[in-house]
Design goal:
about 150 residues, eight-stranded antiparallel beta sheet, alpha+beta
Length: about 150
């Protein structure tokens, strides 16, 4: 009987992603400022497979960020400080990480505040309460070293 090659978990994940019904999400690339690339690379390695019970999905270009679910929860690393940030801005604290939240259309955009590298997470209103998605991401930000 001929031997069949074993399909690795990585190969199976790639195959399922490529054959999945959800197309790759097109994102505008982020041009991180000098010194942020190392943090963003570390963060890439520790992000969860699911956020708000939504599976990871492909993005194009791959370096533009990460996404989960449909509608997509999107994380982008190395973004500029939000223009809406003021000294008197009200911030949310999730597991020791400060976040500025801004309503943009049918989503809330959360951006870290007080970190060496700013991270932005866009959460569509389909995932109420939107801040719950941050709980799934805060430990990854912490592990990446803020």
């Amino acid at each position: 009987m001929p031997r069949r090659p074993l399909l690795t978990l990585a190969g199976l994940t790639l195959l399922l992603t490529a054959c999945g019904r959800t197309p790759a999400l097109e994102l505008d690339p982020v041009t991180p400022s000098p010194g942020t690339s190392a943090y963003c690379e570390r963060l890439d390695g520790v992000l969860p497979a699911a956020v708000a019970d939504q599976p990871l999905r492909r993005v194009e270009p791959e370096s533009a960020g990460h996404a989960w679910g449909d509608p997509a929860i999107v994380l982008r690393c190395g973004v500029p400080e939000p223009a809406a940030l003021r000294p008197d801005s009200r911030l949310a604290d999730v597991d020791g990480i400060g976040w500025l939240d801004e309503e943009r259309g049918d989503a809330i955009v959360f951006t870290t505040v007080g970190q060496d590298v700013d991270v932005e997470v866009t959460v569509p209103s389909a995932y109420k309460p939107e801040a719950d998605a941050l709980a799934d991401l805060s430990s990854a930000l912490e592990r990446a070293g803020r």
